[in-house]
């Protein structure tokens, strides 16, 4: 019992350390600037104020536009990632062709290349193509799949029994029919995993949108929040309100897909 108590105490401490920044951000978002300046940071707001949120959605700030832009980017990238990663992963897992494994491991090795190394070449290419500060400039580097997504799906596809694939071929099914009628329906857990990972990573993406865009037309949530922090350096209540709005869709996503997220953690852990 004593050992179990220590385990739960450690888990409780980990929970507090993890959740405390989010609670502090939420409480600060509902404080007025005067409350934030005159009270300790851990003091709950009294009274709770919506002044910061009203300020974000009024005047020239218009925080709705970055949320809409980010949602559009995430939707397009998720669709592209699922489509192209599934096709590539199935080819690497089940389609026989020359140098298949060697090509896969060379492609997978690009995971070792940091993103900052490719930023300047990508920016140069997109500038020459006239895609700087455009919607497609934001999504094209990520829409055609990723090494991590292809690796994750390939390992899952390889675990599907070969007997199912062979039986489908004996019944006259081709590669595309097998993929969409057998493999994809059996792969819903891993596809949910990939969807969740893609949504979270690209909703929070900051470096590439900051570099490829300028002005407010294609400003994402992360860039808009960073802009508030720079422009209104002393008004942390406004910055925390923007941070709360940026976190809200991810919290809603977690609330809706709790079971899928938990199963996805198990899947990625086992794989």
Automatic annotation (TrEMBL):
Span of domain ABC transmembrane type-1: 67-257
The keyword NADP is annotated on this UniProt entry: no
InterPro entries: MetI-like, MetI-like_sf
Membrane-crossing segments per the record: 7-30, 63-92, 104-123, 135-157, 178-200, 236-257
Alphabetic keyword roster: Cell membrane, Membrane, Transmembrane, Transmembrane helix, Transport
Membrane topology reported for the UniProt record: Multi-pass membrane protein
Cellular component GO terms, alphabetical: plasma membrane
GO biological process, one term: transmembrane transport
Family: Belongs to the binding-protein-dependent transport system permease family.
PANTHER family given in the database record: ABC TRANSPORTER PERMEASE PROTEIN MG189-RELATED, ABC TRANSPORTER PERMEASE PROTEIN MG189-RELATED-RELATED
Protein name (Swiss-Prot/TrEMBL): Sugar ABC transporter permease
